[in-house]
Amino acid sequence: MKKTINIVTLGCSKNLVDSEVLMAQLNNDYLVVHDSNDKADIIIINTCGFIVDAKEESVDTILRAVRSKIKGDTEKILVTGCLSERYKEDLAGEIKEVDGFFGVNELPNVLNALDINFKKELIGERVLTTPKHYAYVKISEGCSRNCSFCAIPLIRGKHVSKPKGEIINEVKFLAKQGVKEVILIAQDLTWYGLDIYKKRELPDLLNRISEIEGIQWIRLHYTYPANFPTGLLNVMHNNSKVCLYLDIPLQHISSRILRSMKRGLGGHKTIDLIKKIKRTIPNVALRTTLIVGYPGETEEEFEQLLDFVMESKFDRLGVFIYSPEEDTSAFTLKDNIPDEIKESRRDRLMMLQQEISYELNKQKVGSAMKVIIDSKEGDKYIGRTEFDSPEVDNEVIIKAPKNSLKIGEYYNVIISGSDFFDLYGEVI
Length: 428
Fold this sequence. Notes:
The chain is an alpha/beta fold. 35% of the residues lie in helices and 23% in strands. The protein contains 12 helices and 18 strands. The model has no long low-confidence stretch (mean pLDDT 94).
């Protein structure tokens, strides 16, 4: 009988894609499961090392696997991903029960540790862990920005674009598996092409992907605000397959803090960019993330951030508490804001966003919207509009007769109710 490998994925969707590629390579030689709670002969942990909380979760997961090995339920443990890339030697010295630590670009070495050779014929193929109607597609690796708070360039290196042909082939493979929605991911989508084509090629890539039969929605995560390509807005406006959804992490609005963060765009130009996006694409749903408690952030600067959120009325918003990361330029700054103040600022921002979301959702009641069904829970179907990304954004909750709707299909839905973060509807 084939041995069982359980691949545990932590962190972002970019890690998830890496795990899916690994699963495709292992599939013929092992029985491969993902994030399973059952016993497994081998456990591979794909770690995250982005912020303190993520590091702690990764270490806790490794230690749980170690306990399983000590009990005799597991033979071998391999650790890969961002935490392993950054702290390989430290981890190997501290957790000797692990059979191998590997960095983010060491797929062949992981396979060799399992007595398997890398199969070039499987390039572009993956075993999907998402529902079969949507998939994440990583169009580049690393990041060439130098934001003061971010360790990603230290972990994953400079931005490296994946050639268009490889991306197109991957999306064609996914479409043949039944994928209808592709979510393009990168640390910075807008940089795509600068390294290998000497110009920003995301707009052209979107148009080429939209020509692939079966693909109905194309979604963008994440677009960097500095030097934002105007051509991208034109494609979103003119190409009906590109979702009117833009994830654009702004981090703050105080020009002083943005300079310290090395974001390349001040507060006034950030506001101008948001206005330009909304002017060009009036129905666009904007998602952003913000950081509170950055070193030296004053109460006045936080109030400025509150005013900006109130004025901008983002459709979706996430807030991170500043986390000092070793070897980043901000690590040398005095982290002088008490934890309770950081947490209070995060909570105040999220309470404001909750009210904004509630008001925006109320405005949708009575309208008809195209919804894709992601899952079924009891007597309810859970779906999304083009304005919502899986797991992180709003859902549309639909009551319908048993087995009357199909997972992965699109339906026209009348929105009959709303609350802070969800809509309720009925299929027309």
